[in-house]
Amino acid sequence: MRKRVAVIRGISLNKWEMQNYEPITRHEVTAFCTYGNLFNTANIDIKKVYLKSLEAVVKPPLHRYWTFLLRKLGYRYHMMGLGKLLATYDVAHTADTWYAFSFQAALVKKKYGNRLVVTQWENIPFALEDRPLIRHMKKVVRGNADLFMAVSHSSERALLTEGVPKEKVHVIPMGVDVERFHPMYKDRGLCSKLGLADDEIVFLFIGRLIEEKGILDLISAYGAIVHDFPSRTRLMVVGEGSLRERAKHLAHQLGIEKSVEFIGSQPYDEMPRLFSIADIFVLPSVPTRTWEEQYGMVLVEAMASGKALISTRTGAIPEVVGPAGMVVPPRQPNRLYEAMRELVISGQKREELGKIARSMAIERYDSRQVAGTLSCIYDCI
Fold this sequence. Notes:
- This protein is α/β, with parallel strands linked by helices and 381 residues long.
- The protein has helices at 15-18, 63-73, 82-86, 100-112, 132-144, 153-161, 188-194, 215-228, 244-253, 271-276, 297-304, 317-321, 333-345, 347-364, 367-380; strands at residues 4-10, 28-34, 47-51, 91-95, 115-120, 147-150, 169-171, 201-206, 233-238, 260-264, 280-283, 308-312, 325-328.
- A 7-stranded parallel sheet has the order 3-2-1-4-5-6-7, covered by helices on one side. It has a 6-stranded parallel sheet with strand order 10-9-8-11-12-13, sandwiched between helices.
- Strand 4 (91-95), helix 4 and strand 5 form a beta-alpha-beta unit.
């Protein structure tokens, strides 16, 4: 039976997750998001519905006070008119239990009896429940969801700790298009544009330039690499964030600014080209009191691209990477440096890790396989 499926993502609809839904043909899939979405949605090949957020209903000069109040309460990303529209769908597929739009979907489930699926990224049990409204919303969502799709076993453990019955939780990792992300020769045009020499070993970082992604640890570790291997390596930093200027200043202090290229945020369609120029991908995530790496889609993209990986032992990373990369303790630049140095020295190890990564990506992280699993879920739920 063909079903109408509403995939609800509020302000965060994005291509890297939706590539797992785009191949679905057995059901009619529609993505719901808000105006002012954080990411470009034009390249998402799914029907999209844009709604106004509750935060947008109050105009300046009172808007910032209204937004502050909603954030303080924990009631963010309510989507105006969502409930009425969801009443016409067979399945509502939302994300995480604390969002206001997930709470809306749960209330629709209670009223109309359609099915509710929740993708769980959050891997810290009872996250945000110091706020009574969020605690209530999460309880309602947990109580009404028919199935939870945990992207990792760490997300699964968080749900089970919060009391979700085990039979309602299925671990289904997110995937990437392994035909778009695949091993390829270095893009000569991009290498020329970035001034990369043929014999340079290129480290690549893609992510937000914030504490949680470990960008300062990476710059510190890379400083020692440049000292050991002058003029032999380069570090490409892709992304923006609050620590950009601090990271650039640290590179200057270490005297490595000529070896580090900050190239800012790049369109998702450019990611395969960026991975092509890299020899080693590095994501040195660090845990905070309220956050641990929930998955790391860039890790899966790097694996599909056949790259050797270095990351840290936090959140879902060890599970996602498995034997395809070197995993070191977080917040330890010296250990990060040791792993980076080992891969600079050993081209054979880089090649071996890259082959393992590509093989794992095809076997476990093919977005077409994920789409098939999603179709079966919608069939049976």
